[in-house]
Every structure is written in C-alpha cells, then in structure tokens.
Amino acid sequence: MIDDFDDALALANGPVAAAVAPSHQPARKREAAGRELPGWETARAIAHRAARPLPPRRLPIDLALGHTLAAPLTALTDLPAFDTSAMDGWAVAGPGPWRLTGTVGVLAGDPATTPLTDGEAVPIATGARIPSGATAVLRTEHGTVARGQLSGANPEPGADVRPRGQECRTGTELLPARTVLTPAVLGLAAAAGYDQLAVRPRPRAEVLVLGDELLFRGLPHDGRIRDALGPMTGPWLTALGAHTLVTRRLGDDAEALHEAISTSRADLIVTTGSTAAGPVDHLRAVLRRLDAQLLVSGVAVRPGHPMLLAELPGGVPLVGLPGNPLAAVSALLTLAGPLLCALADRPAPEDAWAELTDAVRGHPTDTRLVPVRCPAPDQARPLSYAGPAMLRGIAAASALAVIPPGGAEAHTRVRLLDLPHA
Hints:
The protein has helices at 3-12, 40-49, 183-191, 229-239, 254-263, 283-289, 325-343, 392-396; strands at residues 57-60, 68-69, 73-74, 84-85, 89-92, 98-100, 120-124, 136-139, 143-146, 149-152, 161-162, 173-175, 196-200, 204-210, 214-215, 225-226, 243-251, 268-272, 293-297, 301-302, 308-311, 317-321, 352-356, 367-373, 379-382, 399-403, 413-418. The protein has 422 residues and is an alpha/beta fold. The radius of gyration is 30 Å and the shape is elongated.
C-alpha cells in the first residue's frame, strides 16, 4: 500500500470531501522489513538536531541579506548620535518672538553651528543638528517671518527635537543573535555604525536529479516524462534559506551518483527520486558504500513516506526526496526545512493554525499533508489534485494542512505549514 492509497485519498478529497474515518490512536507504522517508521513530528525534530550551525563569517552589509546574526547586534553609537530636528522649521531659544540669526539656516549634514541665545532662532531642516542653546523647534506651518523677526506660539521645551540617544545608547543590544537579516535589520545595523556583520552564512545546497525516465525539455513521449523536480527544488531550497549552488541531472547512474556525493562541496545535498528499493534506485546502496549514517529511513507521513535523511562521513547531511512532486515537497518541508534552520542557527519554524472549511479523509496510521488555500487568516480550504504525483494542487496552495491519522472533520483546527516563496 504505497501510492495507490494516497491517490485514492486524493480522489476522495475532491471539492467536497467525503465523510471522515473514525478517529483512533493507530499503531505505529512499520516498514516491510519490520522497522518502525518515525512519526512526522519526530522526523522534523531529528532533522533539526542533525546539523550544527555553520561557522560564522564577517560580511559587508550589502552582502548580508538573508543571513543570520551570529552575535547580538549592539549599538556602536548613540541613536541619534546628536540632538536633531524632527521637522522643517526654526530652531528657537527661549520664548518668542525671536530674532533670526541666519537666512540659509542649518541643513542635515552640517557641522555644529553658532550657539543660540534666548530670543534667537535659525531656520533648520529635518535631520539637521540642533544648535547649542536651542530649546525647541517651531514648525514651518506654525511660524511667520517679517523684517528678520520670527513670530508664533511658543513651543513646549524639546518640541520636535529628537534628543541624542532617544532610540538607544552606545552598547545597547538592539537585536539578539539568530535574527534573520532583513532589509530593515540591515538599515538598523548601518544606522548603528556597522560596515560588516558577523553572520551564519546561508547554507550551500546542491541538487542531484535522478532518473533515466526524465525529460528536460519538450513534451512527454515514449514512456518518458518531464522533470518537474529539477526546476522547483532549487528555488524551494532558496526560499527555505539556502544558497543553491547547482542542480545536476545524473539519471540512474550509480557511479555518477557516488562521485557527485563524494566530491560535493555543499553544506546540504538534496537528491530527487531513488529513495525506494526499485531495480534502478541506487541511492541507498551508494550511501552504504560511502559509510553514511542513515538518520531517517522513511517517515509515517503521506505523501512522501519514502523520504530519507543521511549524514555523510564528513558531517554533511543528505536529504533524499521521493520522485513524486507533492511527495518531494512534503519531504522538503519535513526534513530539508528544519535542517536549513539548524545550519543557519535559526529556531525551528513556528507553524500557524487554521480551521478546515471541509472534512479531509486521513490515512489510517500516518499523518497527511494536504494542500490548502486560506481564504481568510483563520480558514483553510482543502484543494483537489492532491495526489503524490500531482502538482496542480500545490501550485494553487498557500500552505499544507497537517491532517492527523484518521482524518479531520470540517471546522477542526489544524496546523499549517507555510509554503515559502522565493
């Protein structure tokens, strides 16, 4: 009972789902050889523990986007570094009216200017340094100038002045280690005085596409099919936080596979297909030949239960994706996603929850991952075309719903795996 059962479930869960099988606590799923398959949650946890964070390195700010902070981000300067004007207007000293001491005024980037004394004012631009002696800023729309004299309502002391250190003082921790470097974080780091940052680099990933039956252009013919995993696996890995180095197409050549794995310089190797025990499925034999340690050999999840996770002698992890497209996506989110988080020193992803709009049939013993659309933030609508060999459902989905063994009724709250977008 492999893909036939999954396809039957996919057909049963069309636009209107059939009745849900009675919920029960199933026995553990076992492989044909009698070994116990880990549950889906257990497999994710194993993957997150399977790798240590990559060594930190220093990168210029303009190259650090998407990496993870290897150390807390502490301010190298006060922010702002000096008292600045929050508005265009006039820097004023004491109560008005005020005598203007200049016509050009103080612009952003100007050095310190002549101090003001009570009854004096000078034009000032947003972001400019407040002159010594000034007590407030009078906004442009609140003042009137005539014959060198400024008139307007007296502003409160400190009005529209950003005082030095308002945001932080030198040495303040702005963000903890393990923070992902977004554009906003890079802007904060630059403002705080950084030219370079200590980061965990994006893990380098290599994709090996296996299968002589695959075509890489044109229409399917003569029993051969188009490769769907090659075009999507690299971008999926990139969206999950990897730096995808290359996608290589090896066919069903055991020697080529052995050479590719043994000579790879990647931090993570991902293969597509060849995870089962068919006559040309060489992956497991090659891993044994390389003395790799098999950490996960199948998972109690549908689709994707033949997925595997191995550790090569040098410590590099390898994730084997099943050859069916939706099964491969299931394996990417179950094993590769947590692994990439670990390599980049990020916490395991937190999943969202939503309420099913329709019932979903479950596998008797395994977790199911079902493509869903979220018409509202707290709703998940199961999609059709969710068989392991199908891409139509996942292409229209915004998440995968985690369906427990036995299925889930309509209006049941279920966990969602967000589908990352590059």
